[in-house]
Amino acid sequence: MNASHHHESPVAPPSFPSRLPNVGTTIFTVMSALAAEKNAVNLGQGFPDFECDPRIVDAVARAMREGHNQYPPMAGAAPLRQAISDKIASLYGRHYAADSEITVTAGATQALLTAILCSVHPGDEVIVIEPTYDSYLPAIELAGGVPVFVTLEAPDYAIPFERIAAAITPKTRLLLINTPHNPTGTVWRAEDMRQLEAIVRDTNLLILSDEVYEHMVYDGAPHESVARYPELASRSFVVSSFGKTYHVTGWKIGYVAAPAALTAEFRKVHQFNVFTVNTPMQIGLAQYMSDPAPYLELPAFYQKKRDFFRAGLAGSRFQLLPCTGTYFQCVDYSAISDLPEAEFAQWLTREIGVAAIPVSAFYHAPHESGVVRFCFAKQERTLAAALERLARL
Q1: DSSP H helices in 226-314
Q2: What are the structural domains, with CATH classification, of the chain?
Q3: pLDDT digits (tens, 9 = 90+) for 310-328
Q4: Fewest CB within a 10 Å sphere: which of 68, 74, 196, 328?
């Protein structure tokens, strides 16, 4: 072979129009990189910096050693689907059949994408309540759907039901809701669910309910799952995540509960975009779930962190917004700076040494409220180190 071949300029690949032309590097990647570079305390991205329960690791290791290493059923390992069904029934009073109404997914993000791809046709309208988690819009775009935005406003982020009702048209296929809500830390209450029931009663729309923070609702309040409300449950895909609940975000296992007819459509897409999810983790999770204490104790565990973090900011010039759920605390920084949110978040990382996420990143168009989001799913010493720096402001 002629050596000169190695020096020819590389051939460019054929170009083609992007399926997601508006997607660039996410704010989470940018802020995490900046935090690492500046050795800042990273309260940006939402993941714990502490270990999970060693018993759950043992359960997965045992499943591997016991030979649970081949494909499980497409919809998920039977013991795990049964455990999920039992959990939902005990907490929310609705029975989902383990065989036909529960599907185990490769994390909640895959669950959301698959639910959208299986139900949204090109041109269908999808109502999105902003600020919104960053995977929703690309998923709608991939399905050819048309997002219709309903906006929540700081500081209380109240749900504008009249605007949701006004957004529904004959072309509306799906409504996305998220409670407890990322990024605002707000939760839907029973009266909110009843208002939603009344709005959708005579429509044909489906609901995708993102409930990954279901075990992080504070001050003694219950999590209001759509599963509690028969009229809503009958038209809903309910999504949750073991990563959030058991401090194992890197395991990427979640699930979807939906009526059999919706589940049948969901599984058609699920079968061909992941087929199924790793077996030993499913078997280990099923075994670990036999004790409900880890998720029943989670609200108190995270409320303690929330209260510690809020107390530490009480003397600062940050204005604390309400946090009734999730492991996120939003703050209004307008008494400290008039920089736009993204610039303030970068200034805070570079100069103060604490990384946060601008809430403007969760809106589809420029939207400045002077609010950033901190994640308090951290060890107390991590939070203390961040608070020591933030308290100077």
Answers
A1: 230-233, 242-246, 260-273, 279-288, 293-296, 298-313
A2: 23-46+296-390 (3.90.1150.10), 54-290 (3.40.640.10)
A3: 999 998 999 999 999 999 9
A4: 74
